[in-house]
Structure prediction request, 119 residues.
Amino acid sequence: MLVDTYVPDNLIAGETSLVTDAVTVASSAALKRGAVLGQITVGGKFLLSASAATDGSETPYAVLAEDCNASAGDVTSVAVYIKGEFNANVLSFGTGHTAATTKAALRDVGILIKSAVGA
Prediction:
C-alpha cells in the first residue's frame, strides 16, 4: 500500500474559486509551482514573466499550478491558475517583478495577491 503525506505549500491564500487552464510553457528553465507567468503574444506560449521582456510575457497573466521543467524544450498541457487568491510570500517572479509591481496587473485578470499570509 502506497501512502503519501500531504504537505501544504501555502500558495492558495483565500476562498475565492480557483480557475485553471492548460497552457504550453515555452522552452526556458525549470519552474516551480507558484511562478508568475506571462503569455508571449506571437504563438501564445507562456514564460516566467520578466519586466524587461518585449514579447508580451512582461505582463503577468497566470500562476503555475505545478512544477514544470521546460529546460529541454516546450512543455504542453501545463496546469496554471487564471483566477484565485495567492500568497505573495510563496509566489516566484521573473527579473524585475515583485508582488508589489505585479499586483495591479494580476488583479485585472482575476488573480489576487495577498500579503498577510504566512509562508
In short: The chain has one domain: 19-114. The beta strands are 19-25, 30-31, 36-39, 46-48, 60-64, 68-69, 75-87, 111-114. The mean pLDDT is 93. Residues 19-114 form a domain with the Virus Head Decoration Protein; Chain: A, fold (CATH 2.40.300.10).
